[in-house]
Backbone:
């Protein structure tokens, strides 16, 4: 166990069990009355840690389906079985208050060294590989698993031999209706000299309808609309190879990417069909 890695993790890990306990009634009200969550598949979670939970989320920066999954985890497993969320480092740059709350409820910036240190301490990890492109994807793509080609989570799982537990949701895409992502156009303007606000590349530039702004442009904090959310934990995916060499095999990593996204797409298609009956 690397002392440097553990020191880096201690710097960023600020999980506050007392705050989580205080938030549980608040989350519980939203779970039961605001989003009226329907959730299943929790019996698929293996007893042994660590695990890598891989999700697809919706609803902008509020990402209510992600928060409802975390609430479900805490109420089913308590605080004794920790799971840390791997969040985009730009959250700490662009939204410090949100990053502070996320850190105190179990998030750390995504970095291979921090992820490895968390695994060495026996923590399971939760990651949403699609990031902003996923949670701000246009409403027409609400039924599509969208990881934007990112494979870092797979290299992590392969290297450390982690079972991948997919987590999918349906409904949260209606808490914020994204009309279009105009990032390519804004990227072109940036390349012609237009600066990014606060000097941070947002990676997405959604035009959306939602609260409290009405019609808004950009990855702004939002209040989700009260829409029923369905979440599902899928059976674990166990990859055949593991170790450092396998994680550097691009063809194998890409094959695993296709396998995982296809399995999650199939599960999402079935969940959407069930939810709309």
Residues:
């Amino acid at each position: 166990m690397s002392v440097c890695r553990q020191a880096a993790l201690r710097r960023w890990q600020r999980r506050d069990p007392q705050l989580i306990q205080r938030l549980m009634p608040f989350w519980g009200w939203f779970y039961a009355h605001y989003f009226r969550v329907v959730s299943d598949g929790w019996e698929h979670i293996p007893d042994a840690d660590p695990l890598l939970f891989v999700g697809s989320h919706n609803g902008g920066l509020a990402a209510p389906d992600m928060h409802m999954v975390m609430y479900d985890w805490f109420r089913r497993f308590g605080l004794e079985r920790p799971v840390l969320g791997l969040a985009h480092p730009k959250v700490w740059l662009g939204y410090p208050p949100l990053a502070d709350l996320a850190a105190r409820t179990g998030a750390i910036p995504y970095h291979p060294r921090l992820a490895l240190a968390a695994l060495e301490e026996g923590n399971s990890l939760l990651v949403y590989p699609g990031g902003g492109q996923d949670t701000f994807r246009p409403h027409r793509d609400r039924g599509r698993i969208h990881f934007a080609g990112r494979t870092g989570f797979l290299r992590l799982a392969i290297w450390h031999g982690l079972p991948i537990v997919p987590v999918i949701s349906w409904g949260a895409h209606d808490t914020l209706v994204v009309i279009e992502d105009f990032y390519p156009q804004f990227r072109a303007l940036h390349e012609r000299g237009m600066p990014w606000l606060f000097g941070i590349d947002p990676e997405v530039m959604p035009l959306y309808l939602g609260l409290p702004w009405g019609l808004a442009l950009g990855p702004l904090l939002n209040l989700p609309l009260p829409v029923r959310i369905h979440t599902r934990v899928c059976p674990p995916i166990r990859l055949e190879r593991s170790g450092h060499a396998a994680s550097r095999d691009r063809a194998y990593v890409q094959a695993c990417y296709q396998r995982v996204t296809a399995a999650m797409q199939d599960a999402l298609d079935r969940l959407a069909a069930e939810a709309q009956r």
